[in-house]
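Quick one:
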Amino acid sequence: MNFTSPFSLALGAIIVLSLLGVPVGQAMIGGSILYLYLKGMDMGTAAEQLLNGTYQSFLLLAIPLFILAATIMSSGSVMDRLMRFCNAIVGRFPGGLAQVNVLQSIVFASMSGSALADAAGSGKLMQVMMTKDGKYTPGFAAALTAASSVIGPILPPSIPLVLYALVSGTSIGYLFLAGVLPGLLLGGVMMVLIHYLAKRRKFPVEPPVPLREMPRITREAFPALMLPVVLLGCLYTGVTTPTEAAGLAAAYALLISVALYRSIGWRDIHDALMSSARISISIGILIAGALVFNYVITVENIPASLSSLLATFNLSPLGFLLLVNLLLLGLGCFLEGSTIILVILPVLLPTATALGVDPVHFGLVAVLNIMIGLVTPPYGLLLFMMTKIANVSLTVLVVEMVPFLVVMIGTLALVTLWPDMVLFIPRLAGYSG
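Output:
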């Protein structure tokens, strides 16, 4: 590799700018402009790629709308109703509140699509509930909250899968369906692990909710639980596009919060809009930077060069996926997930296609890898978030995280080795892959 080539210098500029605290998206734009300058190309090409990429993709509008729906549903009494419902279902089992933590992540996944949003919203509430009266240690509660938050972006709707659909051209509808079984499997193995740990560490059991209370609790939570039904129903019946379905989800969340539950006012709506805007802008800048840098990667012909290099190893599709697992698990320890999806995956996709790897299966394997990276030391973002929320040391949190990492990596291995589990539901919906 020539370390004085325009590409090497541009890559070095991106790394240096990031280390200096410049947001990754802006660092990628700066490095890309440097590359264009050194190559003697029109630097206005950066703006052209940015504008064309952002304004020609209708799918991108789904991201702020999903974020808005999740923010609204997190406000007011909606989350309390969902928590009571989850507690009524699994609170009576060993490790009651820990089981509730996992179940609420599965339920909240239908509204969030973001692991960080899950941890910051419902996860913060679960941390308080679990550590109250010393029921669970802060370290275990924080580790469980971080681990269960990973489930959200696997189940639909999923912001990482929307980003993958953007860079791969894969149907977002089939990707959403493909995440159902892996997401439920991940939640299931975590609940089995909690059952084992609860017996071993003598975790408390919550008082069972009387059966006579179940209809009332279910009735109160039912409108919120219907959000994924409305979303996926409109999407898979062809009534709406994915972006329109996201808009409908946001409208539905607003309707039940204001008109039915009467749990939020104008001030709450304003705060939800501002919070959603801030999150959407941060993601938007990252996407813009990735679009410009991907142009540089295309000019350098890096995807084709990588494909040629890997072809010399004569990898099978399974061997390639195992190599991708190792690469993404390693990168996930240091890079933010959206950056990996927008920058690294477009480089790997041509090789996956050439080897006959199904793009939907590849997307689920990649996103699951990236989500595990969020809870992997030394730089997992969820780890840092939970150290602040739970006020525990990173060392304590990592120690408690080890059993969850084991079952997550086991789930990843199963998803990698068994493509039919990922593709079963999409095929029922007409997917031909």
